[in-house]
Amino acid sequence: MEFDNTSDTNLAELGEFGLIKHLTQHIExxxxxxxxxxxxxxxxxxxxDLQTVISTDILIEGVHFxxxxxxxxxxxxxxVIVNLSDIYAMNAQPxxxxxxxxxxxxxxxxxxxxxxxxxLAACKKYKVDLVGGDTTSSLSGLVISIxxxxxxxxxxxxxxxxxxxxxxLCVSGDLGGAYMGLQILEREKxxxxxxxxxxxxxxxxxxxxxxxxxxxxxxxxxDTLNSIGIKPTAxxxxxDGLSSEILHLCSQSEVGVELYEEKIPxxxxxxxxxxxxxxxxxxxxxxxxxxxxxxxxxxISEYEKLKNSMDITIIGHITDKAxxxxxxxxxxTVHELKAQGWNSLLKKIxx
Amino acid sequence: MEFDNTSDTNLAELGEFGLIKHLTQHIExxxxxxxxxxxxxxxxxxxxDLQTVISTDILIEGVHFxxxxxxxxxxxxxxVIVNLSDIYAMNAQPxxxxxxxxxxxxxxxxxxxxxxxxxLAACKKYKVDLVGGDTTSSLSGLVISIxxxxxxxxxxxxxxxxxxxxxxLCVSGDLGGAYMGLQILEREKxxxxxxxxxxxxxxxxxxxxxxxxxxxxxxxxxDTLNSIGIKPTAxxxxxDGLSSEILHLCSQSEVGVELYEEKIPxxxxxxxxxxxxxxxxxxxxxxxxxxxxxxxxxxISEYEKLKNSMDITIIGHITDKAxxxxxxxxxxTVHELKAQGWNSLLKKIxx
Lengths: 351, 351
Prior knowledge:
The structure is a homodimer of 351-residue chains. With 351 residues, chain A is α+β, with helices and mostly antiparallel strands. Chain A is 34% helix and 23% strand. Chain A contains eleven helices and 13 strands. A seven-stranded mixed β-sheet of chain A has the order 8-10-7-11-9-12-13, sandwiched between helices. In chain A, strands 3-6-4-5 form a four-stranded mixed β-sheet. In chain A, helix 2 (72-88) runs parallel beside helix 3 and helix 4 (177-194) crosses helix 5 (206-213). Chains A and B meet through helix 1, strand 2, strand 3, strand 4 and strand 5 of A and helix 1, strand 2, strand 3, strand 4 and strand 5 of B.
């Protein structure tokens, strides 16, 4: 998005319609299913013989993000990614988004342009059309609500409830990194509060910061599985932490699970940093959220196709429901797997 | 929605997933196009040969509603209606909604149940399916973000940009009532602040309060037009005030307009109450928002079909663009029609 020569433009001067016009002037459309984008009472989409997949997420300042260390452009990017991830988790391709934002008058036009430029960068990368939304004022913080829309052939949809006994449990990428990125940012924020002259110590932590601030959605995994001819029996994206997602998938599929601790993919930097913070790396991957990886199950007959796939790890297998939800630890002991959202994590994770 | 025997249940005890499960247990589905509702990463919709219409609105406590006088059940109902209205304005039928809410811990489970019961009442009345959403915490106020999805045959869609010279300009129902309802509620709030022992004086104002607190979307108008064989050339819903909507419709259609002040439908109670408040009734209808009526244009050849239609008023006609946007006042003088959103209205409307 280009910038005008307006400096610190007041949103009140521009008005709601002026703001919308200003922000939407650089929108490009990539999808033939977009019949009508912004500018009417509603957007029009035509997916022909595909089924329409639709998901929504709301992000609240102070709850989901902290503007003291999150750049607005990254926030815009991430807020789109979070929603696209849900569409990929249905084995569908995202095609459109609607974006609603509520903002107080402490935001200048330039700040909103930054936010939008991040959203449009994500749209460009994933070839998704921004087709509508709502812009309004807020009395305090920034609120971002995004709805993502995708298309998928009926026979390709992967629900959460299709996992079967003896299926392999797989996850893409590595886990716990976004959570450790958050820990670093929170630490530097505290340091800065105590002594504003100190520069933040983020050296060598780029990977973790990127996992937290600028995550990607795993379109590549969906495309890979498709190209090697694997359709997962069940799939979910990892937004709340591995254990919570495994439990969702298994309870909806009415099956049990055996997860192998030693198989959980944890990047070495995540591991070292967890140790530095006196945290258990496994617990960070089980309960730390926001990794936006894909967790899925496949028939055991797919093992040969899968075993050499880049960036997919087999971490366990599905069992009979009666066996329950278990993690086999590195030492061989069996632990019951429990859900633990990342909100309650900070208190419990410290050893 | 039925109530449990839990009294003042704390949301923290229930947790996000518990809350979602609790709230969604009473959802009924009415639409065959709903393939998968709540419970997975995304909802699945299949509109077959219909095009999919989609719109979103965000409502912020303190900006769009004031919980000191808005009952939560009405708020839930209205927040759905606002979105359905956008779908009808495309000449489409709404079929699904997604609901995101962010709320602080000052809300008890019972309060959220009230809000949801209003949403589900609107869903039931309009036969719309609640298929997904997001529930999260907020640091301060209540935030409601709703996305509505509908279906329409390609040839039936009415955009804002189809108005042609000599078309008749029509509006459903009457205007300014929701705005006067708001004035009454605001007045009683001020009185209550000064003297909490005084009972609010709302007698005889039921119609205006209902227009503000529990509006309806004009499905009946869409159905009537369809049954008498009229397809509007352009249509928009009246959410921001008549003048602002006329300007949207005319600027997008690249036409001018002549609006007749004496034709603007204003209910007698709205008229009297405006006078009581020392406000100009015409200005209240032009600039007062939230009426959720439909403003549309039709070919002049449809006049015979239209002239006896219940609850539709011809208020003007479309002219050449060069003639501009004009209102012919009751005394015959010509005024340029200007946009004036209802946010800025309070300051300017007082005579």
